[in-house]
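so my prof wants the structure for this chain in the tokens format not the other one, which i didnt know existed until like an hour ago. anyway here's the sequence
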Amino acid sequence: MRKDVEKMEGILLIDQKLTPHVTVLEYACRCGGCNLGRYAKDINWDILYCFEEIRAAAHNYPFIINSGCRCKIHNIEVVGSLNSSHLRCSALDIIPVGGWNQFQMTTGISKDNFIEICDNIIGDGGLGYVKYGKFGIVHIDRDPELMKTKPQRRW
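here's what i got, hopefully its the right format
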């Protein structure tokens, strides 16, 4: 599937699968107009394949991609940050469908063990757990720029 997408030019269809469990719509910026992440040239395959590895290690439990690519304006609106791996389409913020309690009841994997799984797969990339309201979102990234200057960022 990857080679087919890499050969494409122009804008990708929103329902097109980039990997078995990620569509263009889930990955692309959600600002409503910039189209960042909808072009094959925007895609960071490394983070998408790490996500697929993480999902497989979590017994193929489904995840919501809360955020993938973000344009500068959308990133500032979401987190107020001027520098983010999301700007370079190198990050995903994920949460298990049904929340962490449902995830643990179904898979037998605690949230802390899941974060350890992510840590092992992400390697020199970035990994964080952020609580937004009652939801806990796991940030994973494989940002080539930050992996050179700040490898294994954890928070």
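also thought this was worth mentioning. The mean pLDDT is 92.
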